């Protein structure tokens, strides 16, 4: 399907196309440190790239990227900007209700930042209570399984991966011009035994923000990872649209 960007439509077109397609797709990321070799907007680059591919395959209307997120773990690293869970959740609820008034029945959030998870789930539940659009939250679905097949590295407990082989491979695929190959360094995280059970600022586990070995990354690995993620999202959304009738 042709890619339809919301900001390129006039008002009547936006209402007509959302009413016809029923699906709004929102990429959301964050601004946070990603080691010396990746930009602070890495999560935004990935969310945007995945969302565009999903919109091309399943239809819907692609909303402008929301570039800010809840950055608690890396808030003390240079370059990190954060908004609260409450602000992020409230914004998404308001946006969802506004989109519903324009004809959207489904809001699919393509989330590039794991730290946004709690706020996104809270917004989805609030929209459900308000009988707003159904909000789907996609945070790299299928990545763990794909990484097991494709990469040497594995996500950390909790599904975390950061500036490592996995994430760097994906950026090499979608935005290679933003990867500083000459600044790649390997740093294994120093995870305390209770890491999965308490809030742990990442200043306790990494000096650079790198959690692994980005030197293992390739664009070919990134293409396979992105393809697996997009396929999973498209499958879910096609079923969701079928249920609407």
UniProtKB/TrEMBL annotation:
InterPro entries: Creatininase-like_sf (IPR024087), Creatininase/forma_Hydrolase (IPR003785)
GO biological process: riboflavin biosynthetic process
Domain of life: Bacteria
Keyword annotations of the record: Hydrolase, Metal-binding, Zinc
Any GO MF annotation of the entry: hydrolase activity, acting on carbon-nitrogen (but not peptide) bonds, in linear amides
Chain segments annotated as transmembrane: none
Cofactor: Zn(2+)
Family that this chain belongs to: Belongs to the creatininase superfamily.
Protein name: Creatinine amidohydrolase
The species this protein was found in: Thermoflexus hugenholtzii JAD2
């Amino acid at each position: 399907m042709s890619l339809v960007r919301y900001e390129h439509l006039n008002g009547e077109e936006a209402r007509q196309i959302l009413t016809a397609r029923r699906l709004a797709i929102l990429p959301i990321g964050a601004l946070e440190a990603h080691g010396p070799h990746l930009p602070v907007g890495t999560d935004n680059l990935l969310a945007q790239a995945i969302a565009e591919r999903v919109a091309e395959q399943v239809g819907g209307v692609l909303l402008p990227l929301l570039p800010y997120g809840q950055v608690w773990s890396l808030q003390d690293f240079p370059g990190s900007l954060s908004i609260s869970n409450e602000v992020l959740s409230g914004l998404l609820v308001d946006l969802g209700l506004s989109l519903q008034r324009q004809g959207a029945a489904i809001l699919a959030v393509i989330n590039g930042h794991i730290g946004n998870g709690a706020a996104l789930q809270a917004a989805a539940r609030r929209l459900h209570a308000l009988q707003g659009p159904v909000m789907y939250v996609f945070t790299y679905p299928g990545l763990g399984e794909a990484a097991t097949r494709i990469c040497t590295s594995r996500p950390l407990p909790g599904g975390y991966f950061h500036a490592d082989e996995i994430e760097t491979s994906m950026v090499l695929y979608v935005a290679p011009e933003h990867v500083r190959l000459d600044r790649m360094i390997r740093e294994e995280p120093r995870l305390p035994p209770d890491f999965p059970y308490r809030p742990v600022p990442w200043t306790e586990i990494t000096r650079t923000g790198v959690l692994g070995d980005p030197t293992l990354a390739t664009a070919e690995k990134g293409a396979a990872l992105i393809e697996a993620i997009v396929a999973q999202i498209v499958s879910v959304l096609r079923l969701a649209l079928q249920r609407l009738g």
